[in-house]
Amino acid sequence: MTAANAPAPGLPAKRVGMHNWLASYQAMLRWEIVGARLFLPLLVIVQIMAGAGFVLGFGLLIPNLDDAAAMYLSTGAVVMSLILIGLIVTPQIVAQQKMEGSYDFMWSLPVPRSAASLASVTLAGLVAIPGVLAAILVAVLRYDLTFAVHPSAVPAFVLTLACGALLGAALAHGLDQPQLTMLVSQLTVFFVIGFSPINFPIDRLPGWLGALHEYLPIHHMALAVRSSLTDGLVEMTTRSWMILAVWAAAAGGATGIALVRRK
After folding, report:
1. Prediction pTM value
2. Which domain holds residue 233?
3. How far is CA 58 from CA 69, 109, 138, in A?
4. Which of 64, 166, 179, 227 has the greatest number of C-beta atoms within 10 Å?
5. Within a domain: 205
């Protein structure tokens, strides 16, 4: 093999197959972490403060919470930590890369774009963990709650995080203007916090909006996480699992289409 045909350091000689995909994924994950190293510690601190703040803020807003209400609101804070990291951080990172000029360079690298996209989702998941743990810890200390962690917690957390991050990625890669990406991301967060049944039951919404949420992923994200952390508080049905899986697959497909369309 001549020097001109030598593979890039850290990648296998044949850039096909699972070995190459895994090596590419690891390389792109390092790229994402290094690229975010300056604001990553601050982002983790913000996640911790947000997770803890949601739980404490509910207690100030609604004094004398009973155990069921405290559990409902505390698990809602966990859901918020998982969703918002994907809908806020992922689009903002991509928008920042576009403004810096590193976006086109990154997608010109000889790595599978699915591996690069999954690396972004993984980074969002790593950043979300401290906020989730902070929300659970503060809920235990503040309201003396006992969480019941079920085996469904793993698919519930993974699907919720993946769906939120992939929706954010589809938004970020699908819009060419980074300023528009950040604006739409903020509007989406406003809808999630104010008009989505995460911290209140779906029957409190107007009929048309409640019916809409039956087909949107946010309500089912909340059901998945809440049912995996509690006993009998809510019921997660097969239909809800299917809707979450379809939305995650659709968001992943939309992200892939947006990336493939780039030259």
Report:
1. 0.84
2. 20-260
3. 10, 46, 12
4. 166
5. yes
